[in-house]
Amino acid sequence: MDEIVDHYPDACGACGAGFAAAQQRPGGRFGRHQVAELPPIGVFLTEHRTHQLRCRHCRARTSAQVPEIAGSPFGLRLQAALVTLTAAYRISRRGITEIACDLFGVTLSKGAADAICQRASEALAGPYLQLQDFVLDQGAVHVDETGWRTSGDGRALWGASIPDAVFLQIAEHCNREQFNALIGSGYDGIVISDRWPGYNHLDPNQRQACWSHLQRDFRKHADGLAEQKTFGEHGGHLTKQVFAAWRAYQHDHHDRARLQAEIAPIQEQLRELLEHASAKKARNRWHRGFANNLLKIWPALWTFTLIDGVEPTNNPAERALRAPVIHRKVSLGTQSDNGERFAERALSAAGTCRLQHRSLFTYLSELITAHNRGDPFPQLA
């Protein structure tokens, strides 16, 4: 509590009698009403003067050097604040210059704002690589991808997420090779993803397909006619049963054997439904192809019933990409390779700090300070 102000009534609210001064003393019963207020905002300006001295022996003049930490005209906490506005709150470079002037009384150009972001990108290089190693060290990882733009050209934004960290990478293409570059061909954990064909090279026994996507697909088929409508409605009903069993396991009994027992009859019914739909005599080729694709990755539908830490949806990866997607729409992507590096590093740091309930501003302040001093960087994960 920064300040406490006591208020006493002047008169009785019932009879109107005044209170003596002796009655107005601390203690007794009181109510509370708190008001949060900002102190006057301003930037503390430090001027470094470099004096020249003449040597008594050789008469040469020597100038003092500005300390390395003061090499930039903008302080470390101010730099951290501006980068936080960009990474976490999607403020453009132009917006940063306006906020710096309105709130802090600091005048800087868009080029200076971009230079601050690039210095932060250099400081984030080490924590970014350490974050990648940490994420891929886990036994299960959620993976998703979406579009990105750099100078108007198409790119792919890949995201790998775990419960307390997210790693983002901007790649030139959205294909199997880029997936291997993100995850590594030797990753032996469980990959939780949607059913995009780029993941088909994975062993179905080391994969979990997203049931939320399955639910949407069955709804789409249920909007069809005849056999397709029946197929979609039956599949949607089985999907609801899967989610009901998973929620009961998560929130009620936490018994994996019971979960497997409840899922077993659902597996039998779904298998029968898919085999019937995939038969060559099936008239509708749309749900026939869908059924065949599910049968090819059949083990990947049920990994969540066997392995702890695996869930039946890819929602964490989609949530991790939500903020970067909004950032892309607001900023229209990036303009250079350096811009891509800053975006993937800063957005990874922002997403990870959000998952860990940490202050991105505090982390960046510590990181930029350590980078300027040459100290070991604070870890993100």
Describe this structure in words.
By secondary structure, the protein is of the alpha/beta class. It has a domain of 177 residues. The chain has a 5-stranded mixed sheet, sandwiched between helices. It has a two-stranded antiparallel sheet with strand order 1-2. Helix 1 packs across helix 11 and helix 7 crosses helix 8. The longest helix is centred in the middle third of the chain and has 28 residues. The radius of gyration is 30 Å and the shape is extended. 29% of the residues are buried. The model has no long low-confidence stretch (mean pLDDT 89).
Question: In short, what is this structure?
Answer:
Helix content is 49%, strand content 11%.
